[in-house]
Specification:
The chain is an alpha/beta fold and 195 residues long. It has five helices and nine strands.
Length: 195
């Protein structure tokens, strides 16, 4: 069973998504990830986007730790229903509408959403081909706030994502079978961050 690790809802259990199509982030990986994000000071007041949200654990952990809002995007009906149940817990604690669940395909959601996002989690199912992930990253890049952080969770056997021109990888970490890739908006040569 997954849980919120720390913050406003720390210790609360989250309903898990049943079935083999999902791959929940382990508490060990979540603890390491959020320790790093807190050290980078990107959580407080952040507008969070959790793509391929599953149970919503990453977006909801962000809210519990001080993010201002979290959009949770999940296409599967059963997973989206579980995600909604979990979001209701955070909305009771963090305020109505802090967590919003969108039952939609990631590509469709991004096409109709302008952002800007300060923190984005992508935890796509392993079967997603690298070209599909690249397409999502390319659509996401212009929707990021200056100083945003993008975290992509993949198998250690998956190659590094093919970063589009608008994103630059700055780190990666491995935890058992899981690898986390970190990226930020890329600044074009000769341009300032405010362009």
């Amino acid at each position: 069973m997954s849980r919120i690790i720390a913050g406003l809802a720390g210790g609360h259990a989250l309903a898990s998504v049943p079935g083999s199509g999902t791959r929940p982030t382990t508490d060990r990986v979540k603890e390491a990830l959020f320790s790093r994000l807190e050290a980078m000071d990107v959580l407080t007041g952040a507008r969070v986007l959790d793509l391929y949200a599953g149970s919503g654990a990453l977006g909801l952990e962000s809210l519990s730790r001080g993010a201002s809002s979290a959009e949770l995007v999940e296409a599967d009906a059963k997973a989206a229903a579980i995600c909604q149940r979990n979001a209701e817990l955070l909305n009771c604690l963090a305020g109505p509408g802090a967590a919003r669940v969108n039952r939609a395909k990631v590509e469709q959601f991004l096409q109709r959403s302008a952002g800007p996002w300060d923190l984005v989690f992508l935890d796509p199912p392993y079967p997603l081909e690298e070209s599909g992930l690249s397409s999502v990253l390319e659509t996401l890049a212009p929707r990021l706030a200056a100083g945003a952080v993008v975290v992509v969770e993949r198998s250690v056997r998956s190659p590094e994502p093919d970063w589009p021109a608008g994103l630059a990888s700055f780190s990666h970490r491995s935890y058992g079978e899981t690898r986390l890739w970190f990226a930020e908006p890329a600044v074009a040569e000769g341009a300032s961050v405010n362009d």
